[in-house]
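WARN  no MSA supplied for this record, continuing single-sequence
INFO  ligand: 2-phosphoglycolic acid
INFO  echoing inputs
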Amino acid sequence: MTSSRIQSLQAIQILDSRGLPTIQVTISVTNPSDPIDNKVYWAKSSVPSGASTGTWEALELRDNDANNYGGKGVSMAINNINTIIAPKLIGNRYDRAMQVDELMIELDGTPNESKLGANSILAVSNAVHRAMAKVSKQELFQYLRSEYFDQFGEDYQMPRLMSNIINGGAHADSGLDVQEFMVVPNSGDLRTDVKIASEIYHRLKADLHKAGQITSLGDEGGFAPKLATSVEALDLITRSVQEAGYAKQCNIALDVASSELLDSQTQMYRIDGQNLSAGELVKHYNSLITKYDIISIEDGLAEDDIAGWQIAKRELTADLWQIGDDLFVTNSKRFQELALGSNVANGILIKPNQIGTILETVQVINLALSNNYITAISHRSGETTDTLISDLAVACNSKFIKLGAPARGERVVKYNRLLEIAELI
Ligand code: PGA
Ligand code: ZN
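INFO  complex generated
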């Protein structure tokens, strides 16, 4: 086994895809396990940020100083890395990246990483994993596979793309309540799936032009046309998919992000011009599933509406992937309590920054996989050019990867990393 000695670790503030502050970490390590290897290995990481964040997510530490980026500064988080975490790590030798994750979890000591900040912790965790992959002469996806997912051996299955082509909810002012309308190519080949997603995206753009719609983009690179209901968006997508010639090679997925739609007073969901109870909302989904080629609904019910999730599980076809995002927040404890205790959902969305370390992220993935849940590894609406999610999705043979539209650098870079990995496996 190789080991790594951390030589330097430094965090700086950079901007994310919304132009708001986030963290970049640069690390250098050496390889004390090989006397003839005197190289210095450098790696860099950065972390994303959500807009429709779940209540139960780990804490993203922000300065909350209104005079500094409207309160969104991350100087405290950066300070935590440079003055608390880095001095603990520099000069030390580690055999495995997970040891650093364990150390940071202990150093933080809170259940939601609120002392050091999950943004600080993930930036370091990601950088350390990247550096140690280099020392062991592996690509990141290979290192993650060998460290955490050796049950799959050398069997690599590329994930199916969830490509978000119409944005609504908190990510765009399209007027749509549902946050994400995604196409999910099913050719069985990554390169073909990328081509399908791209061609549909461009066909949709042309169709929107024809319909006199603006083609501005939402936070995740999908279009943000002025539309009133899910039916209007689904009609448009269905037509573009057909015109592009992919009716048989592409399905549809939704992320309703319904925690954002629930009125806490009345416990009714405000969606598609209606006010619906959980039971009525499930019937609404049923009518959409019957009419359109929808294979997956994420956060169909709100994060704490467990009774609603149970209705959905009972009433909707077992073929539908019901994916929990705000529901599970990539948290093993919440997953164990809800998924294994109360018959909700059959898939889990995985966002490393909802929990903090890569170690905790892979633990919940393995817990989910061993309980017959499928995984969708996901970006956030505020992204950087970091491609951890692409490597992670391949490492764990994730069924899906959610990576936005095939547009805008911070989204495209995830597609391109998958295309690169497809050449390596
Ligand atoms: P967020 O949205 O990154 O703004 O939380 C993504 C999602 O809800 O899946
Ligand atoms: Zn979501």
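The domain at 4-137 is CATH 3.30.390.10 (Enolase-like; domain 1).
INFO  checksum written, moving to next record
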